[in-house]
Amino acid sequence: MLKINFKRTLKFSFLLLLILLVGIAFTACDLGTNDEVGPDGPEESYNISGQVVDFSGDPVDDATIVISEEESISVDDDGNWQASGLTGENKVELAEDGLPESYTVSDGESDLEFLMVNLPDVEADENNIQLKMEELTSDEFEGRLAGLSGAKDAEEFIYNYFDEYNLEKYPEKDSYKQEFNHYVYYPRQGSTSLMQIVNEEDSVIRDFEPLKNFIPRNSFAPASLNKDINSAEIHIYDGDINEKHEDNVLLVPENEAFSTEKIYASDNKTQIEATGVNEDYPIQSILAEASDNGVAGVIIRDYTPENHNYLSRTVSVDDSHDYQSEHPAVFSADSNTYQQLKQDSKDEDFVNIEIDYKFEEVTSNNIVGYIEGESNETLIIGAHFDHAGFGYNEYEEKVIYPGALDNASGTVAMMKLAKYASEFGTPEKNLVFAGFNAEELGLKGSRYFVDELSQMDNIQYINLDMIDDPIGLYNQEDKEVPLVAKLDRIFFEGMDLEGESVEDRINSDNLSFSNHPDVEYKDVMALSKPDIDEVIHTPADDMEAVDVDNISEIVDGLLIYLYNLAY
Q1: Which DSSP category does 211 fall into?
Q2: 187: cis peptide before it, omega within 30°?
Q3: Which of 231, 281, 354, 563: CA 20 to 30 A from 341?
Q4: Measuring CA to CA, which residue among 197, 285, 192 is closest to residue 234?
Q5: Would you place residue 453 in the very low, low, confident or very high pLDDT band (cuts 50, 70, 90)?
Q6: Which 8-state DSSP code applies to residue 173?
Q7: Cα 184 versus chain centre, distance
């Protein structure tokens, strides 16, 4: 008979149970604390690396990288750093002021570059930018056509702002105003342009709406501002102009008028870039030949999107041209109107046209503020504040062209940068903040300004014209522009703004600097929305056409740029 010692067996069982429990506890503890084990097995670790550079692009040797607010890594003498054995998602920051503010990584990265900058203590006031733009685009300023009362109100608007923040007067001047003379044309009070189709009995078959179906386009020379054309035949231009076209009207397709390289197209929108009188446009020679043969009027087809309610208004002026002489009147017509006129030509119907503009010499002012620096280098930030003015619709009502994107956006940005710069103390570079007038008339204000630059050396110029998202940074196509490269780093790498650097130039005040034969400049750069919106130079360019949040972000980037470049 087997005897069992229950006491000894109990002790032995208890010991086995204890060992088992301890083993389970260790296993559970190990599973709960091992960060490299997940539902699918151990999590792979990864390495990251990068470099820290300063505003000039040189390596920084005294910076610190912080990983998820825990691990700190010092850079080496070449600004390089590396972190290894990371798992999961990590936030990577520069302990000092830098751009971008941080990276978020969850996998290996080898090019995490930080730009160490001095960040100003201020940011753009979005609400104030909104208010200033709303004021500048209000009906009170009547579209800011240079030389008229609305643009003069805009002059005072900028003048008072510079005075409020105690900007200095331009060197050797006792005023912010820089006066110059130029010519301007505009519709007479209540003057409504007319275009209608009539039959042989002079009965009206159809009327076209001014500003919407057609618009006077007397930015070309030779052209007449005042015409009364009655029962004219309609001819389609075929490359030849002769005596049969005398006192009649020619229809000219846009590809004949401007040639294919002058047509700007994107996103299925096409616009003709003809803001200035340019001898390269075939329309110039067509008009000269039309003038020699006594043609009464020329109508150019202008492609516009279907939802485009107004045709673009151009106001460029060739000061050498006598707009009161007997030359053809020039019009743009939308595609539907142009096609209808072609059909009317085939039907041998006639056209009546009336146009009545005033042409006069006026006085305008650039508004220029100044902050003296400690070196002989000068940074100029400029924006044109004039716009396309106004027109009259079929009911003889005044229609205002507000010019929010073009160019209240750039003007208010320039003004805000002037305000902040006035609060930063004495800069290293001389700073000039210029509100240019009569840009829409052919860069007249900036050209006059550049003629006065003989006393300045080492000039850098930044032009702000139509700034919104996306933003384009334009250099001169035949010149490297360090200004662009540095702002590119801030905008597109540091702040993650939408846009790109473009090896091209825009037809704005920047050309007055880069094309001037007697001015030595270091860099010329322009900021502009690369995809020109369909509202440009129409009444639809109002505050609804812009995004003030985007404009504020661009001002913030420019503020960082200015602070590091000039202070």
Answers
A1: T
A2: no
A3: 281
A4: 197
A5: confident
A6: -
A7: 25
Contact 548, 133 (CB under 8 A): yes
Express each pLDDT in 1-27 by its tens digit.
323 333 343 344 444 444 444 444 444
Please state, in angstroms and rounded to a whole number, the distance separating the CA atoms of residues 109 and 103.
10
Instruction: For each of the domains in the chain, give its residue range(s) and CATH number, in order of start.
Output: 47-116 (2.60.40.1120), 165-180+361-566 (3.40.630.10), 194-360 (3.50.30.30)
Kindly give, in sequence order, each residue whose CB lies less than 8 Å from that of residue 460, ignoring residues fewer than 6 positions away.
377, 378, 379, 380, 429, 483, 521, 522, 523, 524
393 and 209 Cβ atoms separated by less than 8 Å:
yes
Is this model's pTM higher than 0.70 or not? yes
Closest listed residue to residue 357, CA positions, set 186, 243, 212: 186
CA 474 to chain centre: 10
In three-state secondary structure terms, 33 is helix
Q: What is the pLDDT of residues 481-506, one digit of tens each?
A: 677 878 988 998 888 899 998 888 88
351: CB partners within 8 A, 6+ apart: 195, 196, 197, 198, 229, 231, 232, 234, 249, 341, 344
Instruction: Name residues whose C-beta falls within 8 Å of residue 457's C-beta, 6 or more positions apart in sequence.
Output: 376, 377, 378, 520
